[in-house]
Design brief:
Elements: H1 5-12, H2 17-30, H3 35-45, H4 54-65, H5 69-82, H6 87-99, H7 103-116, H8 121-133, H9 137-150, H10 155-167, H11 171-184, H12 189-201, H13 205-218, H14 223-235, H15 239-252, H16 257-269, H17 273-286, H18 291-303, H19 309-313, H20 327-333, H21 337-352, E1 369-375, H22 382-393, E2 399-405, H23 413-421, E3 424-427, H24 433-442, E4 447-450, H25 461-464, E5 470-473, E6 488-491, E7 507-510, E8 542-545, H26 554-566, E9 571-575, H27 579-591, E10 599-602, H28 607-613, E11 619-621, H29 630-637, E12 642-645, H30 654-661, E13 668-669, H31 672-684, H32 686-699, H33 708-724
Parallel strand pairs: 1-2, 1-4, 2-3, 4-5, 5-6, 6-7, 8-9, 8-11, 9-10, 11-12, 12-13
Helix pairs in contact: 1-2, 2-3, 4-5, 4-6, 5-6, 6-7, 6-8, 7-8, 8-9, 8-10, 9-10, 10-11, 10-12, 11-12, 12-13, 12-14, 13-14, 14-15, 14-16, 15-16, 16-17, 17-18, 22-23, 26-31, 31-32
């Protein structure tokens, strides 16, 4: 008679190790999936655990705790040669490698520790932390789950499980784990700090701030909690309070890189750019290998038109993981769509991880197509100035239009135009990303349009949770999202040539003319400005560029200075963005032999008046890496010619697209030299400039660019095509 498993297990206890192993293998031949037999065989064949004497092990731990990691590692390696089967020694060695940033080695040693002692829950937890550092998040979660299986009351593992679930954007599950950790260890400051981070990700800033305060109360020198409290204040748009919290973090941890970096961001929000730059430079000095810290410095210097030789020469690093560079920074730094895509992919992976799948019921052909537009800018903003007329012209017999607003509740004329034009307006600023996506699914949105992308206040995480069966990147961000959850990018064949599609993670959906919509009823005020009122001389040629100052680089400015030098009495009319940019541009002009007062800076003013003052400009000079977008359509709408140079990336080809849609390709150049020659030719040949202006005046009323009705029909046909092919 064959033995049962229970009989075999009892008999094995009376056998020699070799005989017991043979019996276990025999039983596994009959019952290959039996975990009890597998565990007994593994335990039998597992090497005997032998750790170093306590004194020697304590010496390694002492060096580790003192931060003398190289010395600790040297001794640990020597001990491993003598005690290769010491599970505690392998766990300690893993911790040392982790402190040295060598996480693969750390994972390896933690793995040996758990192989030697499968119930060593602390080593499973430590292995999970190292896997998190390697961004192997699913494996990290499995390690924390194993630690909890072995010891369900291990608070540290529950806390770390909450962290990894937050990074996986499983925020509700994260909150449950954080709550469990606090119930098990209510005196743990780290647990409150981590739950605060989850609350912040859930858009529950009040709860987050309360947890950060609790963490600080439990540990008054907790620098991370001060930094995170500052982040909570920033979520409430309270940069002054945020700066005070970052300062407290720096007081207890002067080398805390994130405190200096975030302090710089808060100072930037207050337009204290010089102080912001000092904070970002301090962060970069503390972390010289950080791509993100270097990018923040570079981006702020661009805002201030503070140009450096090193910043203009070497390709900027993209960073990885928590050090990833924001994709918008890359638009300014480098006209290279391949690297822009790589940057966006790295950033999206860090911010959102993999797409969360959702199920959708098939749309009834009898009902209208439901379009959802998502933005923070449903008020008087450049995006709405472009889109307002499209909302009004949508065919309501075929389309049901919804706007999901996660921006400020601004009640202005532009918001009212939108409210009058849409079927549903949804205030979602108070909801977390998953809840917004759930709301959109509940409204049975067929096609979700992300109007923000990787721009300030964007919430791409909504789309990571699948708001609709078809999701589209449109208008707000001139580049690829690098996201598997965005299906299409709307473009035209100028901004994304067919041969450039490989540099976009989305499928390119082409409009027949220009990707950019325009409001063909935009008001140009009747206000008549005098030149002196605008700071302009009473006579002389006026070159202008009303782009944000960060778009201006040395490459364009060298050309502009030469044009000023060759066109007597001319001036360059720029937007007054910040006083540091103004001072630096005047200084750069003087260094090129141009009197600083030949640069005139225009104050911001209401849109209709801003359009009216274009009458005093003669020629708009575009920037290269990031073209004029709305500012180009502003100029063209007022009849002001724009000269541009076609670059490689989407952002560097926008003005070229607008001009082609006006049937004015003669104003689009291919090189910096052609750009300079054309600008000089138009500035010195009044007849030629007059002919260009006359053509622009004619085409403005007939060409596709400012035909809002045609654009609406084109984009509606595109929407229908995207849904048919989904």
């Amino acid at each position: 008679m064959k033995m049962s498993i229970d009989q075999a297990l009892r008999k094995a206890r009376s056998l020699s190790p070799e005989e017991a192993a043979a019996l276990y293998r025999e039983m596994l031949g009959r019952f290959p999936a039996n975990k009890r037999v597998q565990a007994e065989l593994e335990a039998l064949t597992r090497p005997a655990i032998v750790n170093p004497p306590v004194g020697e092990l304590d010496a390694v731990v002492a060096y580790y705790r003192q931060g003398r990691h190289a010395e600790a590692l040297r001794i640990a390696v020597e001990l491993l040669a003598r005690f290769p089967t010491g599970e505690i020694l392998h766990n300690v060695t893993g911790a040392i490698y982790g402190a040295l940033g060598q996480f693969e080695q750390a994972v390896s040693h933690y793995g040996v520790a758990t192989d030697l002692a499968p119930d060593y829950f602390e080593a499973h937890n430590n292995r999970g932390n190292a896997l998190m550092d390697l961004r192997r998040l699913d494996e990290a979660l499995a390690s924390f789950d194993e630690a909890i299986r072995i010891n369900p009351d291990y608070a540290q593992a529950h806390m770390n499980r909450g962290i990894v679930l937050r990074r996986l954007t499983r925020l509700r599950d994260s909150l449950a784990s954080c709550n469990r950790a606090i119930r098990l260890d209510p005196g743990c400051a780290e647990a409150y700090n981590n739950r605060g981070n989850t609350f912040l990700a859930l858009n529950r800033a009040d709860d987050a701030l309360a947890d950060y305060e609790k963490a600080i109360g439990l540990r008054p020198s907790f620098a991370d909690a001060f930094v995170n409290r500052g982040n909570g204040f920033m979520a409430f748009k309270c940069p002054d309070k945020a700066i005070a919290s970052y300062d407290e973090a720096i007081a207890v941890a002067p080398a805390k890189v994130l405190a200096h970096k975030n302090r710089g961001c808060a100072l930037l929000a207050l337009d204290r750019l010089d102080e912001a730059l000092a904070s970002h430079r301090r962060a970069a000095a503390l972390a010289p290998a950080s791509a993100l810290a270097a990018s923040e410095v570079r981006n702020l210097q661009a805002r201030m038109c503070l140009w450096t030789e090193t910043g203009d020469r070497s390709p900027p690093p993209l960073g990885v993981g928590d050090d990833a560079v924001p994709p918008f920074h890359m638009l300014v730094a480098e006209d290279d769509p391949a690297r822009q895509l790589r940057s966006a992919t790295i950033w999206t992976e860090k911010e959102h991880g993999a797409e969360r799948l959702a199920s959708f019921r098939p749309r009834s052909a009898a009902r209208r197509i439901r379009i959802g537009y998502f933005s923070a800018d449903f008020h008087d903003h450049a995006t709405m100035r472009l889109l307002a007329r499209i909302f009004e012209l949508h065919d309501r017999a075929r389309f049901e239009i919804h706007a999901f607003s996660y921006g400020p509740d601004v009640q202005d004329a532009m918001r009212q135009r939108l409210l009058d034009a849409v079927d549903g307006f949804h205030e979602v600023a108070h909801l977390d990303n998953a809840a917004v996506a759930e709301l959109a699914r509940g409204k049975a949105i067929d096609l979700a349009i992300d109007l923000k992308g990787h721009t300030r206040d964007g919430r791409s995480g909504i789309f990571a949770h699948r708001a609709a069966p078809v999701q589209v990147n449109y208008l707000g961000y001139p580049g690829s999202m690098g996201a598997d959850f965005i299906d299409h990018i709307i473009a035209d064949r100028i901004v994304i040539p067919v041969e450039a599609q490989a540099h976009y993670s989305e499928k390119v959906a082409y409009l027949p003319h220009c990707y950019q919509p325009n409001d063909d009823r935009r008001e140009i005020s009747g206000r008549v400005f005098g030149r002196s009122e605008l700071g302009l001389p009473e006579s002389g040629f006026v070159f202008c560029c009303f782009n944000n100052n960060y778009k201006i680089t040395r490459r364009e400015f060298d050309i502009w200075a030469r044009l000023l030098g060759r066109v007597e009495g001319s001036v360059l009319w720029l937007l007054r963005d910040n006083r540091w940019a103004e001072d630096n541009l005047r200084r750069e002009a003087e260094a090129r032999g141009i009197a600083p007062d030949r640069l005139v800076f225009a104050e911001r003013m209401p849109a209709a008046d801003h359009l009216a003052r274009h009458r005093h400009a003669d020629l708009f000079l575009d920037t290269f890496g990031v073209n004029a977008h709305t500012t180009a359509s502003d100029a063209l709408w007022t009849g002001l010619p724009v000269v541009t140079r076609l670059g490689s990336s989407f952002a560097a080809r926008v003005a070229g697209s607008l001009l082609h849609a006006l049937d004015m390709p003669e104003l689009v150049t291919g090189t910096a030299g052609e750009y300079e020659r054309l600008a000089l030719d138009l500035a010195t040949d009044p007849a030629k400039l007059a002919a260009v202006r006359a053509k622009l005046a004619r085409n403005r009323l007939t060409a596709p660019l400012f035909d809002a009705g045609r654009h609406t029909r084109d984009i509606e046909a595109l929407y229908e095509r995207l849904l048919r092919t989904a």
